[in-house]
Structures are given as structure tokens and as C-alpha cells.
Amino acid sequence: MGSVTNTQALRCAVVVARFNEIITKRLLEGALSTFNHYSVLEDNIDVVWVPGSFEIGVAAERLGKSQKYHAILCIGAVIRGDTSHYDVVVNSAASGVLSAGLNSGVPCIFGVLTCDNMDQALNRAGGKSGNKGSETALTADKGNLAVAAFFSVSPPQKYFVCVPVLRSIRCGSHTTYL
Ligand SMILES: Nc1c(NC[C@H](O)[C@H](O)[C@H](O)CO)[nH]c(=O)[nH]c1=O
Ligand SMILES: CC(=O)[C@@H](O)COP(=O)(O)O
């Protein structure tokens, strides 16, 4: 993908885990509403659902390698149970997202909640601790503009020109299934 200097040119994919959907749907809504706030166009966002956080990395890497996106948001919610299964899913999700970014060269942003219980997750999905999905989208907007400017323009302080180009436009949900 070429570089972008304003958010209306930004193309993103959001990979969302269906597991703990009550949480991940709220994180997705937070991400989409933040994209809307920063003028990312609805048509430029593809949402891809996967069964659980364990599968996020595979999808993110495939999307990254498609060369269609400036950034891939990875959203999931892993909630601790009685066994060590939690650690396996969390570690696999984290290394999968990291590998997806390294192998595709596209920023893959880690928006997977890793919580001890459902209360912690609800608090971070629009509750008293904010909406981590929304923060994930913010990372994509700012991170991508920064990365694009850093690699493609000289002098690098052009980055500071890019950031204020943030306006508001309507953005609903746009869904694609793998
Ligand atoms: N326990 C959680 C899972 N488990 C499901 C796995 O992610 C995976 O889909 C399954 O093992 C099939 O490969 N996923 C979450 O996202 N959150 C959990 O708490
Ligand atoms: C991710 C988890 O820990 C959970 O879904 C699995 O629960 P358990 O460890 O009780 O089998």
C-alpha cells in the first residue's frame, strides 16, 4: 500500500473473535465509532470474524499480505477459566498478531483483552475503564499516519503536518466474512 496523509485514504481491516462476543461486539463498535470520528471512510473498513482469539493471527497475516490495508486491528477477549487454557490462548493470540505484522509488513494492532473475569472485560468494553477497541482504532489512525510519513517523506517532520488532518464523517459497519 502507498502512504497516506489523511484518514480518508486509510484502509483498515478489523479481525474480530466471535468467542465472548458480548465483549468483542462492543470493542468493535468502539473501534468503528472512533474510525468514524477520525473520518476513516466506511467503505475503507473490512470486518472479518474468526471463531476465537487463537485464530486472529492467521486471518490478520492473510489480510496483511493482501496488500489492501494500511493497518489491521485485532480484537478479541480472553477470559480466565480454571485451567491453563487461558495462557495458551493469550500467548497464541499475541504471538499470532506479532507474526502477522512481522511477516506482512503491515501494522497489526493488538486489541485482545486478557482478563481475569467478565467484570474486568465489561469495564474495558465501554464500561468504567473505557473502550479498548476504540483505543485500538486510534492506534491505527495515528500509528499508520506516523509510519507512512516516516518511511515515505523527507524531512520526517512532515508527520506533524499529517496529524491535524482529522475531520468527522459518518461511518457505519461494513462486514466481510472469511
Ligand atoms: N477461551 C477463549 C477462546 N477459546 C477459543 C480459541 O480461541 C479457539 O477459537 C478454539 O480453541 C478453536 O481453535 N477464545 C477467545 O477468544 N477467548 C477465550 O476466552
Ligand atoms: C480461555 C479460558 O481459560 C477458558 O475459556 C477455558 O476455561 P477452563 O480453563 O475452565 O477450561
3D architecture notes:
Helix 3 links the parallel strand 3 (71-79) and strand 4. The protein has a 5-stranded parallel β-sheet, with helices on both faces. Strands 5-6 form a two-stranded antiparallel sheet. Helix 1 (21-37) packs across helix 5 and helix 2 (56-65) packs parallel to helix 3 (85-104). It has helices at 21-37, 56-65, 85-104, 118-123, 132-152, 159-162, and strands spanning 12-17, 45-50, 71-79, 108-115, 125-127, 130-131, 175-176. It has 178 residues and is α/β, with parallel strands linked by helices. It has one domain: Rossmann fold (3-Layer(aba) Sandwich), CATH 3.40.50.960. The chain is globular and about 45 Å long. The chain has 6 helices and 7 strands; from the N terminus they run E-H-E-H-E-H-E-H-E-E-H-H-E. Mean pLDDT is 82; it is low at 150-178. The structure holds the ligand Nc1c(NC[C@H](O)[C@H](O)[C@H](O)CO)[nH]c(=O)[nH]c1=O and the ligand CC(=O)[C@@H](O)COP(=O)(O)O. The ligand Nc1c(NC[C@H](O)[C@H](O)[C@H](O)CO)[nH]c(=O)[nH]c1=O is lined by residues 17, 19-20, 51-55, 76-79, 89. One of its GO terms (cellular component) is riboflavin synthase complex. Keywords: Riboflavin biosynthesis, Transferase.
Across the major sheet, the strand order is 4-3-1-2-7
For the record, the count of structural domains works out to 1
Count of individual beta strands: 7
Helix count, per DSSP? 6
User: Overall pLDDT, averaged?
Assistant: 82
EC number: 2.5.1.78
Family: Belongs to the DMRL synthase family.
Keywords: Riboflavin biosynthesis, Transferase
Catalytic activity: (2S)-2-hydroxy-3-oxobutyl phosphate + 5-amino-6-(D-ribitylamino)uracil = 6,7-dimethyl-8-(1-D-ribityl)lumazine + phosphate + 2 H2O + H(+)
